[in-house]
Amino acid sequence: MAKVTLYWRDGTAYLNWRDGNGRQRKSIGRRGAIEAETIRAAKEAELTYGVRIISTAPKLADFIEHYLEWYKAEHPRTHGKAKSELRLLKAEFGHRPIDTITTMEIEAHKARRLTKDRAAKETVSKELRRFRTAIRRGMRWKLFQVDPMEGVEIPRGVRSVAVKFYGKKELVKLYEANPSRSSLWRFMTHTGIRRGEVAGCSKEKVRRNVLHVESEPGENEEGRTKSGRWRDVPLNKEARKAFAELPDPLVSVHPDTISDWFAEDAKKAGIGGSLHRLRHTFGATLTMAGVPLRRIQLLMGHADYATTEKYYAHLTPNGSDKAVMLLEKLL
To answer: What is the tens place of the pLDDT at every residue in 27-46?
Structure first.
């Protein structure tokens, strides 16, 4: 008969046993003494008779709370986004042990999001990728061994996106809507800096009129600088003027607050859009001015050239027209 023992450390219970692979230890989370003993006995019976009686995996809600606590410490600037993307899956399956959630149930959840909720494919894709990343992290922590995302097909959104960006007249309306924040919006427009990068950015980051940016994206940020790469963005005249008007640090609030500020000012200006549209304005305007996409990739800090190409290639001046006109000379 197999022998399973309990081990406690800092309030967390662990199961210990030996099998053909040697000594094993598995966390069963924070449990009361009676519940932990019940799980221990069930595991012992499972190893002896080959029948699982009680799941030892944590409930999804408990795991997600633990994951988000860790994530906040590692990636504080994107913690809110991660929490939002995991919200619906946690609400539906949170009461269930993770190893009881099946692939078919996740597929059904995906189908409801796409049909009943009419959520965009891009949105559902982000939610499922975030969930997959969290589950894989839990498996690396050896909290459970079953992957409910295994075999789930993540929907692919529109690959070619016609981005929206502001023109000069719209920017003037934005700046005039709230003069006290116009310097911030001008600086972000003329540098293409992300909200998470401008939050807490100190003036020492600018040396000889060049902004030194160190990107700190989350664990699952596609199309961004994942490895903590840095980039230099030269400041033009407008950016230097706005920079001189800003305090040190430039902004001392959470990135979500910056987005809220922008939403207020954009609504007042009657121009619509979100804060990220300023970044697209930077990239789109440079593209239309004839700046090579590779240079734009470096200035914007995209990890992959494909991201820059996807958003801005169609804006290249006379790109397609000039290309097909060559046929008249060659054929």
So the answer is: 887 778 887 888 888 888 88
Running DSSP on this structure, what letter comes out for residue 150? T
Average pLDDT over every residue of 213-236: 64
The three-state secondary structure class of 25 is strand
Tokens 């796409």 sit at which residue? Answer: 114
CATH classification code of 168-213+232-299+312-319: 1.10.443.10
pTM over 0.90: no
What pLDDT is stored for residue 221 in this prediction?
A: 47
* Per-residue pLDDT band at 223 (split at 50, 70, 90): very low
Structure tokens at 294: 């590779």
Nearest CA among 283, 278, 309, 277 for reference residue 296: 283
Which ranges in 192-300 belong to alpha helices (H)?
195-198, 237-245, 255-269, 276-288, 293-300
The Cα–Cα gap between 259 and 256 comes to 5
285 Cβ partners below 8 Å, 6+ apart? Answer: 165
Cα 49 to Cα 42, 52, 59, 99, 167: the distances in Å are 10, 9, 25, 20, 71
| Structural domain boundaries in the chain | 5-49, 60-140, 168-213+232-299+312-319
pLDDT, the chain, mean: 86
Residue 30: the pLDDT is 78
With tokens 């940020």, the residue in question is 221
The residues that bridge with 12 in the sheet, in sequence order, are 9
Question: How would you list the strands of the sheet with 22-29, edge to edge?
Answer: 5-9, 12-19, 22-29
Cβ atoms of 291 and 282 closer than 8 Å: no
User: What does each C-alpha distance from 325 to 25, 117, 225, 238, 321 come to in angstroms?
Assistant: 69, 46, 37, 38, 6
